[in-house]
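Q: Mind making up any chain with C-alpha cells?
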Amino acid sequence: MAGPAPRFGWVLDQLALRGTERIVEVGCGHGIAAGLVVDALEAAPGFLDLPADQRGRYLGVDRSEKMIAASATRNAAAVDRGTAAFVAADVGDAPVERGSVDVVLAWRVAGLAEPAALGAVLSWLGPGGTVVLAFDDPDPARAAATAARARRSADAIGATVGAARSVELPTGAVTALWLSPT
C-alpha cells in the first residue's frame, strides 16, 4: 500500500481489511493513518453493498484537541459519509464500549507499552479482535526496545502476543506487536 508514511502501509497491508471492521486508532495525530484506514475499509469488495450498520467504521482518539481538529478536517469527507469519527480523550476516558472493537491501532504511542493503558485498550476488543502496536524509529534498537517494553506489559497483564514483526523501511525500523486478550 503506497501512502504518505510507509510504516502505516506496512501494517495495513498485513491486516487485510474486509471492510466490516470496527477500528480504533489511539494517538491519531494529524489523521494521516485515518485516511489510509478509511480508504482500505471503503475499497474492500462489497463495502457499498453492505447495509450501513454493517460497514466498517474508524474512530480516531487523541488526547489533543488540536490533533483531533486536524484529523477531522483532513478526513472531513469520511466523517460526512459516516465512516470516520474523531474524539479528544485519554485512553481511560475514550467513549469505546468494552468488547466492541475488532482492531485497535497505535503508532508511536509509547504510553500503550504500560500495563494499565494496554489493559484498557485490550478490553475494547470483541471476539477475535487484535491490538496492533507499531513502534518506529530511525534507530532500530530504540524501536525494538519500546516494543520489548510493550511485550513485557502484555505478559504482565496476561495478554497474548500473537505475532511480533519487524521491517526496515526507508524512514527507519518498525517493530509491531499483534496482541489479544487471553
Notes: The helical segments are 6-15, 32-43, 65-74, 76-81, 115-123, 140-156.
